[in-house]
Amino acid sequence: MKRYFLSIFFAVAFLFYLPSHSQDHQEDLPPLELFDQVIGIENTGLANGEEYIEPHIIRDDQHKYFLSRNFLEGTVSYNSQLYSPVTMKYNIYDDILLVFLKTNDGSSSFKLHKQKIDSFKIGEHSFINVQEGKEVQGFHEVLLDRENLLLLKKHNKKIRKELDDNFTYYRFQNDDPAYAIYYNGTYFPVNSRRDFQKIFPERETGIRKFYGINKSLRKNQPDLFMTRLLQDINN
C-alpha cells in the first residue's frame, strides 16, 4: 500500500514536468509501472539480489533457460511488490530467476532471492513459487486456474557434459516434467492415474475412462491431457 501511494505521487509529479509529446504514452501506464520507469527498475527493491556468473559454458542452443537463453520482458511479484516491465529469464535447471539490471559499472545479471519471489510471468506463461508443499517445491507454471484448484507444471532440464579438444562444455535438454495440483489448500503431485484417483476417489470411474480413451493425447500432448482431465473432473 505504501508503494502504491508513492507511485501515485511520483507519477503525478513527473507527469507535470514531462514534455507534451511524451505525456500521451506515459499516462496510459499503470501507476506501479510508471513509478518503476520514472525511478529506474534498478533503484527499486528488485535490485536486492545476488550478481549471477554463469557456471556452465553452453554449446549451440541447448541451454538451461525457459523459451530462450536471452532475456525476455515480463513481470514479477517480489517481496510482495509487483514490478513491470522487467527484463528477466528463468533458469530451469537451477530453478532460479535472473533479472537484467543496470549498475554503476554498466549492467549485470542478478539472481533474485528465491524465497522472496511470489510469482512471475514471461510472455503468456505464468509461474508461482511453491514454498509450502512437502512433495511439491519450486517454480511451477500454471496451466489451469480454477477456484480452489490449480494445475501446475514443473519444467525440468537434464545436463550432459562433453569434451572437445580438451575444452569442456555442456548441453541441456528438456527432461520429463512433473505435474501437481493445488486442491483444498494442499499441493499434490499428479503423475499417474492413481494419483488422481487418490485425490478424487468419487471420480475414479471417470478418471479411468479418460485415461483409457486419451492414450495418444497423453503421449503426444501431456499438458493438454492433464488440462482436459482436470477440467473434466472439475466439471
Strand order in the largest sheet: 1-5-4-3-2-6-7-8-9-10-11
Quickly give the structural class.
alpha+beta
Alpha carbon gap, first and last residue = 37 Å
The figure for the number of domains is: 3
Quick check: average pLDDT? 80
Q: Count every beta strand, where a strand is a DSSP E run of 2 or more residues.
A: 11
Q: Portion of residues in helices?
A: 25-40%
Residues in β-strands, percent: 35-45%
Tally of contiguous helical segments = 7
Q: Mind summarizing the main beta sheet?
A: 11 strands, antiparallel
The stretches of 5 or more residues where confidence is low (pLDDT under 50) are 1-43
Q: Tell the overall outline.
A: globular
Order of helices and strands: HHHEEEEEEEEEEEHHHH
Q: Whole-number radius of gyration? A: 22 Å
Please give a structural write-up.
The chain is of the alpha+beta class and 235 residues long. It folds into 3 domains: 1-30, no CATH class; 40-189, no CATH class; 192-235, no CATH class. The chain is built from 7 helices and 11 strands. The protein has helices spanning 2-17, 20-27, 31-39, 193-199, 204-213, 215-220, 222-234, and strands spanning 49-51, 72-78, 81-91, 96-103, 106-112, 117-122, 125-130, 138-146, 149-164, 167-183, 186-189. It has an 11-stranded antiparallel β-sheet with strand order 1-5-4-3-2-6-7-8-9-10-11. Helix 1 crosses helix 3 and helix 4 (193-199) runs antiparallel to helix 5 (204-213). The longest helix is centred in the first third of the chain and has 16 residues, at 2-17. The radius of gyration is 22 Å and the shape is globular. The two termini are 37 Å apart. Residues 1-43 have low confidence and may be disordered.
